[in-house]
Request: fold
Amino acid sequence: MPMMPVVLSSSARTVFGSVRQRLPRFRPTSWRSLVVPVLCAFAVLAQAQTAPTPSVAKDVPQLSLNDWLTRIHDASRQRAYVGTFVVSAGNDISTSRIWHVCDGQQQMERIDTLSGEPRMTIRRNSDVITFAPETKQAWMDNRESLGLFPELLRTPSNLIPEFYQHRELGVDRVAGHKAQVIEIVPKDSLRFGYRIWSEVSTGLVVKLQTLAHDGQVLEQLAYSELQLDAPVSMGKLTRLMRNTRGYDIYRPTIRRTTAEAEGWRLSEPVPGFQSMSCHVRESSGDSGGLSPMQWVFSDGLASVSLFIQAYDGTRHQQENSITSGATQSVSRKLGDHWVTVMGEVPKATLEQFARVLERIR
Reply:
């Protein structure tokens, strides 16, 4: 069975109304690179950019970090919009078109890739389907976590201010919209920083940069064109989502579990990161508890996924690492298993996860 191009969830994961989590990346033989985010390969140009010159934002009140993040989190749930956004990471650039609508309870959106392989992804709340028109294949998925940025509303306890601080940089314009610029700075070396452009009247994120500790822009997402309060039809999106005629449909069997139940644990916690979910992908060929497992952690902004599967000497090298924009990945053999740790965090953070992961049975 072909594998669906995974979409990862990750650090500043879709502050763009959960868009980024559904863009194609790469993943280690399992499912959706993280994501829902994380095993995929994004695109975009990461250039060192300077922060906008601060200007006095008289029409935007000074807010706490949690207030800003809550406003950003809620923005995409309260607006209909249509736009074109560009993701830049490393030497790659990808462009997609999004239609987003909500009625207070139901959220729907459609994302069409405008570069690379044609893909159309439609989401209704947690139900997601991705169409590949050239191969007439479609992948259906149900995602508890949509990788919305920030994750603070679903983490067991809100510890974000313990690990990040923020500053307001003033007002700028993106895609014709006035936006307040906020920079979120980590207090340690285990996470990246972010620079966020939040549309003044709605709070919607119109631009997002992931920053290295030296201020270098590792990855950027930005709308090149955005229409707020657009007339998006939920009925039309529903019909498109249901129209699978002529497509081969693939639906992975995912079982919710715990790492302990599967025989894994961390010998010590990685500061700030809390376990969010754990799932196993079932298949008829798996036995002995070796089904591929994904264990997701988050500190409220950044997320890390541990992918664990049976070791296969014909496919797995002894150790490797991959960098694509802000996304880092390290893989290594652990006993009879192959472990890949991926996230939009510094490589040293992933190595710390790999170091404290241990088999308990």
In short: The two ends are 30 Å apart (CA to CA). Confidence is low (pLDDT under 50) at residues 1-60. The first helix runs from residue 65 to 75. DSSP finds four helices and 21 strands in the chain.
